[in-house]
Amino acid sequence: MTYLKWIIGLSLAALLFIPIPSLHSHKSYNWGAFGRIPVLHAGRVKPLESVARLSLIQLSGKQTIRFEKKQYEAIEWLACVFWAAEKADKMPVFRIYNPNIVALMGIEGGKKKLFSFQNLQGILPQLDREAQRAEEMLPAERTSFQKDILILNHQLLLYAYLKYSFDIPSSHIGLWGPSYWQLSPQFSSQAVPVSFFESIQKLRFMTGLASIKVLPPVSNQRKWHSFSEGLLTRLLPVQKDNPVLKSFLDMAVAYQANRSDSFNQALERYQQQLKACKSIGWSVKLDYVLLSWAPFYRAMLVYCGVFTLVFFAWLLDKPALIRIAYRCATLSFFCHSVGIVMRMLVMGRPPVTNLYTSAVCVGWV
User: Fold this and answer.
1) Measured between alpha carbons, how far is 167 from 188 in angstroms, rounded to an integer?
2) CA 125 remoteness from chain centre
3) Does 195 have pLDDT greater than 60?
4) Separation between Cα atoms, residue 321 and residue 160, nearest integer Å
5) Mapping DSSP to helix (H, G, I), strand (E, B) and coil, where does residue 257 land?
6) What is the pLDDT of residues 53-93, one digit of tens each?
7) Which of 25, 88, 22, 31 lies closest to 260, judged by CA?
8) Pairs from 318-326 (Cβ < 8 Å, separation ≥ 24)
9) pLDDT band for position 110 (50/70/90)?
10) 3-state class (DSSP) for residue 93
11) What radius of gyration do the chain's Cα atoms show?
């Protein structure tokens, strides 16, 4: 019984620190390094992995997605959204509970709750009209259908913003190859194909919708730029090349060509170039550590284990289990506290900005 108590106690303690298995190690693409790419999103510099997880949770309520008998982690799904839109549009990521919305798609019955953008594409005009009608009403007067319509409309906007943050004109992908980098800012319109200017117009449109800024400031500048902004501003006579733009474009082209080795090489060059950028602070690395460690999730598991130990200690009248439960609870509380401090350092303010972070803090108190 003594050994069993120690095994139970050490197992609960190990839950706080053992690495969480990842699907990244089994993939040819270096998704771990790709997820550590710093970006400017929602007014804060954060790793791309953070954007991917938060976005997928907002859409589907999960951090992974299953499609065509394969499991995709959030960062893999986000790469599909960026550079393989046709594939991403088929992935079931929109969680819809309201049967009336499901009926609009022509899908009757069933327990299916996750739908793809392709399922919704045929009813987008109708959804837009319903959303406008719901916005004109007072919140207290809205029906459950109208509330769910507004939620779905917000999800569709989020999905569109993500798609336009990194998209490149795929119909003219060759124009963004080596010939693009040989262009002088004072190029002659007679030397450039008309399709190139069509791509320029699309980039200008995407620049206004991009929600993620991936190109860090260069020289003495402080402004971050989106992927499309980088492609456009490079052609200006007064604009210097952003050192990471070429590597990021190479990653996009390699991914669309399904060349994992070229993708990883471009990613490695990007990481080397990023070291010279002084605007990337330690908070991005700390944010990625927080994501990888997941202290709140681990603490929750240990708290559940502690509750179970206390229950069996009371049921079997074993005071020794109470002592083990107390030690595990203390260690879990320490992990919980460190996680909150790390979250405060990353965000630069108390972590009470939404329901989730507020619940984490209330649980700690």
Assistant:
1) 26
2) 27
3) no
4) 53
5) coil
6) 999 999 999 999 999 889 999 999 999 999 898 999 999 99
7) 31
8) 320/5, 321/5, 321/8, 324/5, 324/6, 324/8, 324/9
9) low
10) coil
11) 24
